[in-house]
Amino acid sequence: MEERMGVFVCHCGTNIAGVVDVKRVAEELADYPGVAYSTDYTYMCSDPGQNLVKDAIKKHNLTGVIVAACSPTLHEATFRRAGTAAGMNQYQVEIANIREQCSWVHQGDKEAATSKAIRTIKVMIEKARLDEALEPISVPMTPRALVVGGGIAGIQAALDVANAGHEVILVEKSASIGGHMAQLSETFPTLDCSQCIMTPKMVEVAQHPKIKLMTYSEVDDVSGYVGNFKVRIKKKAAYVNRDVCTGCGLCVEKCPAKTPSEFDEQLADRKAIYTPFPQAVPNKPVLDAEHCTYFLKDGKCGICAKVCPLDCIDYEQKDEFIEVEVGAIVVATGYDLYPIENLGEYGGGKYPDVITGLQFERMLSASGPTGGEVLRPSNGESPKEVVFLTCCGSRDTENHLPYCSKICCMYLTKHAMLYKHKVHDGQAYVFYMDVRTGGKGYEEFYTRAAEEDDVLYLRGKVSKIFEEDGKVMVWGVDTLSGKKIEIAADMAVLGLATVPNKAAAELANMLKIHTDEWGFLSEAHPKLRPVEALAPGFYLAGAAQGPKDIPECVAQASAAASKVAALFAESEYHREPVIAVIDEDTCAGCRVCISVCPYDAAEFDDEKKVARIKEAICEGCGACIAACPSGSAQQKNLTDEQLYKMVSAALEV
Amino acid sequence: MFEPRIVCFFCKWCTYAGADLAGTSRKQYPPNGVVVRVNCSGRIDPQHVLWAFREGADGVLVGGCHPGDCHYEEGNHKTMRRVQFLKRTLEDMGVEPERLHLDWISAAEGEKLVHVMSDFVDTIKELGPLELGLKEQEKVV
After folding, report:
1. Which are the contacts of A391, defined by CB distance < 8 A and separation ≥ 6?
2. H/E element, A23
């Protein structure tokens, strides 16, 4: 059949046309072999632009379409739909990226940018010339979601997916769901009691008929693809039969071994057998073998087993591995605080009266280690002067992390305010770089702290904290008055930067979700696809994707859940058909393809003595094609022949 | 002034997305490379690279995901081994191995793409045009 290619050069307003001579591009390409029609237009993605493409397909009976515009990640789908509407096979529509990878990066050299745009389009013409008409591959959809992380984001995502009528497996690594939000005392800017608004949601998760809650569990392995993931979950040995346990708490009461509580941020001890906090869900203990006398002293103890009325304690329990199948995965692994040890200038954690924001939260909490009283950890006295420091590790390109942790300005304002509500004659100081109050009611909350509660805001950074005569000496500067400030305080609270949860990096690696240089999960598009990962079937929620406050976490979790529900609305998922195919006539049966395939998608046909690709499994990576010594393995619509011609076109003078 | 011609094989998951990010951020780099998008750097056959040199490329840049980040498990490990082997082969053929460069550029590393691209163009400029000494009839039209 005669090739009749159509080239459509987009101006994108001045985004492309301001640098690339689009008229010249369209004119030069009109003379390129096989091109039947070539034109340019201001906004090809607009309705008239798309109609221009559709009309040209019909009028010129085009066999291939190349739209030279923005990155294919943006409008490939748009123009494929336009092609389909005009009766063309969608896989014969190609995008030449002349914006992100040309006009926007070569703004100073119009001539070179124009020449590069021409070659970039020629590359795609050569590809389109040999593109075959393909159909998407339909694969079955397992309408069950896995949510990783049981903080507020994971809880919200799980509830929303479950309420849409789909099964959910919620995996949480610690003994209870709740995450950091369960640790908080009150929340800004309303001063809602965090646990009061959190615990109903936690209970709802536990009681929801569609949610299978797996606490003290971790994702161990993930394989498969969207709609058809196989997940292995490690249920860590709790040494307690939690299915039988009623949570009576007798074992916890009698346990003689103590260790600092993670939930109370090391301000108090917990037992070796413990439930992290009183409202834990499930409210059933786990035994921490690392601190248990029975395990440390070869069986000398066993008190918990003796007192348990239901014989739930099982010292022989082993990690259990459970295989599940899911169609989508929501990652909500949350955040940690930047290690205080990294802030040597503030004592690096060696001064008892210099504490983290989360420790102060526990101190403020009525169920916390001090019963809600603000007390100096060193001597248990009420502190009369407390200094709150923002940007501890954040916005410090030279020494720490360059980004803004977003929540610290607000939670330290809340801390200062709550401190003043508890210690009326105390003085609260907040050292700040800028007070960032972007959020509904946030600015008013800050104003209230400064005006009604007499919190003293000092613009400047603290250079040093050290101990002297039982006081915490804070040296800083007030850049507004230009004065050096020295405060002999009783306590200092550090607004440490938020960093991704330690476990998130390993998980992201396993799931092949990209992370930015700080380890936060990367979304598919920073503006328009903020809750999806680039690979289909993976969704992001909460602070794992970047620092966020509670309302944002909840919003993102609900958004991720709605994406999951939309995915599950179809009983099949349509995959890209650009997979590998083996020519049986030339295949020598050497099995190299089988050895290099990471998915076991290549199999050997014993009868014909040739290799074959399993269509439903092949991901189209091309490893087998590059390895095949006879050229029998090829990639649909990216064959070696296409690649050679594309390379030649890239080098045309 | 010698302007090198460069073919860039970029994997679509990492380096291609990194190049898009460089564009979105309006970072500037030399226009010498033309990108051929592939699903995975592991799709690149050594013959594709040799073909590029034969067709007049002065340099070939291969960009993939960081080790451990490959969307297809380990395609980039295969690329790493292939490129090492290929560099030796190029040397045997009298082509400076520096004309082939492999780098790991993630979707978040627009800035790195700019550095890698700019440095590579400088390297090739220093090396000068590639003269393969092909006879006229051996040249592919």
Report:
1. A404, A405, A408, A432, A433, A461, A495, A497
2. helix A22-30
C-alpha closest to that of A390 among A376, A377, A405, A402? A405
Cβ of A123 within 8 Å of Cβ of B14? The answer is no
pLDDT at res. A1: 63
Q: What is the pLDDT at residue A631?
A: 93
Q: What is the rounded average pLDDT for all residues in chain A? A: 95
DSSP B97: G
Q: Is A607 on the interface with B (CB under 8 A)?
A: no
The pTM of the full predicted model, rounded to 2 decimals, is 0.83
A71 → closest Cβ in B20, B31, B108: B20
Residues 516-535 in A contacting B (C-alpha not used; CB under 8 Å): 516-517, 522, 534-535
Q: Which two tokens stand for residue A587?
A: 């295949």
Cα–Cα dist B43/A634, whole Å: 10
Residue B140's pLDDT is 54
Helices (H), ranges, A219-269: 250-254
Taking CB atoms and an 8 Å limit, are A647 and B78 in contact across chains?
no
| A100 part of contact set with chain B, CB < 8 Å | yes
The Cα A564–Cα A327 span in angstroms is 9
Nearest CA among A474, A623, B109, A366 for reference residue B117: B109
> How far is the C-alpha of A533 from the C-alpha of A378, rounded, in Å?
46
> For the range A379-385, what are the long-range contacts, defined as Cβ-Cβ under 8 Å and sequence gap of 24 or more?
A379/A470, A381/A490, A382/A423, A382/A426, A383/A353, A383/A423, A383/A426, A383/A489, A383/A490, A383/A491, A384/A423, A384/A425, A384/A426, A384/A427, A384/A490, A385/A426, A385/A427, A385/A429, A385/A487, A385/A488, A385/A489, A385/A490, A385/A491
CB contact under 8 A, A102 and B31: yes
**CA distance, residue B66 to nearest chain A CA (Å):** 10
Backbone angles phi, psi at B35, to 5 degrees: -90, 135
- Are A461 and A421 contacting, i.e. CB atoms less than 8 angstroms apart? no
Rounded distance between C-alpha atoms, residue B53 and residue B71, angstroms: 28
pLDDT of residue A28: 97
Q: Compare all CA atoms of chain B with the CA of A74 and give the residue at the minimum distance.
A: B20
> Per-residue pLDDT tens for A405-416?
999 999 999 999
User: For chain B, what is the mean pLDDT?
Assistant: 93
Instruction: Tell me the DSSP string of A81-121.
Output: HHHHHTT--GGGEEEEE-IIIIITT-TT-HHHHHHHHHHHH
Is A99 in the B-facing interface, judged by CB distances under 8 Å? yes
Q: How far is B98 from chain A (nearest CA, A)?
A: 19
Closest-CA residue of A relative to B68 is A509
**Which of helix, strand or coil describes residue A229?**
strand
> Which amino acid would we find at residue A538?
F
Structure tokens at B82: 């292939």
> Between chain A and chain B, how many beta carbons pairs sit less than 8 Å apart?
147
Structure token digits, residue A500: 């991704």
Which amino acid makes up residue A129?
Answer: R
The string of pLDDT tens digits covering residues A99-116 is 999 999 999 999 999 999
CB atoms A116 and B108 under 8 Å: no
Which one of A105, A534, A651 has the shortest CB-CB distance to B107?
A: A534
Residue B135's pLDDT is what?
61
Query: Does any CB of chain B come closer than 8 Å to the CB of residue A602?
Result: no
- Calculate how close chain B gets to A324, using CA atoms only, in Å: 21
DSSP string, A330-344: EE---EEEPPGGG-G
How far is residue A44's CA from residue A96's CA, in Å, rounded to a whole number?
A: 13
pLDDT, tens digit (0-9, with 9 covering 90-100), for A320-372: 999 999 999 999 999 999 999 999 999 999 999 999 999 999 999 999 999 99
Residues of A in contact with B39 (CB under 8 A): 578, 620-622, 635, 638
